[in-house]
Design a protein that fits this description.
With 153 residues, the chain is an all-alpha fold. It folds into two domains: 80 residues, Multidrug-efflux Transporter Regulator, Chain: A, Domain 2 (Orthogonal Bundle), CATH 1.10.1660.10; 67 residues, no CATH class. Helices cover 48% and strands 3% of the residues. The chain contains six helices and two strands. A two-stranded antiparallel sheet has the order 1-2. The chain starts with 7 loop residues before the first helix and ends in a 5-residue tail after the last helix.
C-alpha cells in the first residue's frame, strides 16, 4: 500500500482537515495510517472518503461517538459500496428529517420569536403569560425538540 499512499500533507490538502485533526481522528480510531520504515504516516486513498463522511456527519450535528459507531461497521480494506451508504442513510434519515423540520420552524419564526419564552418582545408569536415556559425546564423550551438537544461534543 505504501507506494500509492498519501502523506499527511497530501491528505490535509485534499480533505481540508488540518494535520492535527488527522492525527486526532487516527487516535480515535476513525481513520488508519500505515507507517514507513522512517515512522512517517501514509494513508490509503480510502481515507479521503471516510474524512468526507466525518465532515458531513459533524456538519449535521452528529456526535463523534455516533460517527465512530457507523465507521466501525464500514470495511477498512475497501471503498464503501452504495449498499453500505444506503444502510447508513436509513439509520439517520429520521434524525435528519427531524432536524430539517426543526430548522424550517426556526427559520420561519425567527423574525418574530425564536421560542425562548423570554417575554422581551412586545409581540411574539409564542405566548408566555406568567412565564409558563419556565415549567418546561431550562433553555428555549418552545424551540422544536431537535434544536433543544445538547450540542455534540
Amino acid at each position: 500500500m505504501l507506494e500509492e499512499a498519501l502523506t499527511v500533507s497530501e491528505v490535509a490538502r485534499r480533505s481540508g482537515f488540518a494535520p492535527s485533526a488527522l492525527r486526532f481522528y487516527e487516535r480515535e480510531g476513525l481513520i488508519t495510517a500505515q507507517r514507513t520504515d522512517g515512522g512517517q504516516r501514509r494513508y490509503g486513498r480510502i481515507v479521503l472518503r471516510r474524512l468526507a463522511f466525518i465532515r458531513a456527519a459533524r456538519q449535521v450535528g452528529l456526535a463523534l461517538e455516533e460517527v465512530r459507531e457507523v465507521l466501525a461497521e464500514l470495511p477498512e480494506s475497501r471503498t464503501p459500496t452504495r449498499a453500505d451508504w444506503s444502510r447508513i442513510s436509513r439509520l439517520w434519515r429520521q434524525r435528519l428529517d427531524e432536524q430539517i423540520e426543526a430548522l424550517v420552524a426556526l427559520r420561519d419564526g425567527l423574525d418574530s420569536c425564536i421560542g425562548c419564552g423570554c417575554l422581551s418582545l412586545k409581540r411574539c408569536q409564542t405566548l408566555n403569560p406568567q412565564d409558563i415556559a419556565a415549567a418546561g425546564g431550562p433553555g428555549a423550551v418552545y424551540l422544536p425538540r431537535r434544536l433543544r438537544e445538547p450540542l455534540p461534543e
